[in-house]
Amino acid sequence: MAPDPWLSMYESTCHTAQEAAEKIQERNRYQRNGESTAKLNVAIRSLLQNLKEKTDQLKDRLFHSVSTRQITQLEGDRRQNLVDELHTRHRQLQASFKNEGTEPDVIRSSLMAGGVKQNITNPWLVEEPEETRGLGFHEIQQQQKRIIEEQDAGLDALSSILSRQKQMGQEIGNELEEQNEIIDDLANLVENTDDKLRCQTRRVMMVEKKSTSCGVFMEKSVLDVSSFSKTTVAADE
């Protein structure tokens, strides 16, 4: 299986940082001996510029890998630590280059005890997480794939729950609409019944009024007839 391009580029960037540290140490030695350092300064500037560009590219590629879920968040955090470390080393080497004649700890720790071994591929690698310690590239890739699959399964389960909740919400909404329609129909029925009741009440009141009028008229008529009868009887006598 082909190696991870990001890791390959990271190794190359570490080599560039190591080479820059060697050149700065050599430049400082030349200065102490009174020798010319013009060519070394040019080479160091080029290496530092190359180191910065490679580190920026690593940062951009890492962001793309994380955003497209090509690697897990755990691996993304681990690689981000590596990139941050490279940024720090670049600033330290830049400061060492400007402060001619000095050898900060970052250079001395890399170059002491007989120089730099050519087989060192990552002199500033942070401690590897326990989850990936002792695993090969293929095994790490499989582990990342398994973690991503587990995350996908969790997202699918969450999506299913949200779908059911959405369906329940729609059913509740439909039920509320039906209940509102029933309430509207009931309100209309009550309103119609109330109108009919008022109408019947008015009719009853009219009938009572008419009954009262008829009673008074009949009573008056009886009194008139009685008076007329008495008058007739008196005249006959």
Describe this structure in words.
- The longest helix is centred in the last third of the chain and has 100 residues, at 137-236.
- It is built from five helices and no strands.
- The N and C termini lie far apart (151 Å).
- Mean pLDDT is 78; it is low at 110-126.
- With 237 residues, it is an all-alpha fold.
| Overall mean pLDDT | 78
User: Helical residue percent?
Assistant: over 70%
Q: Helix-strand pattern, N to C?
A: HHHHH
Strand-residue proportion: under 5%
How many separate helices? 5
Compute the separation of the termini in Å: 151 Å
Please state the structural category. mainly alpha
Q: What is the strand tally?
A: 0
Can you tell me the residue ranges where pLDDT is under 50 for at least 5 consecutive residues?
110-126
Global geometry: rod-shaped
Radius of gyration: 51 Å
Main sheet overview:
none
Mind sketching the topology for me?
Layout: H1 5-32, H2 38-67, H3 73-98, H4 105-111, H5 137-236
Helix pairs in contact: 1-2, 1-3, 1-4, 2-3
Keywords:
237 residues, mainly alpha, 5 helices, 81% helix, rod-shaped
Structure, briefly:
Helices cover 81% and strands 0% of the residues. It is built from five helices and no strands.
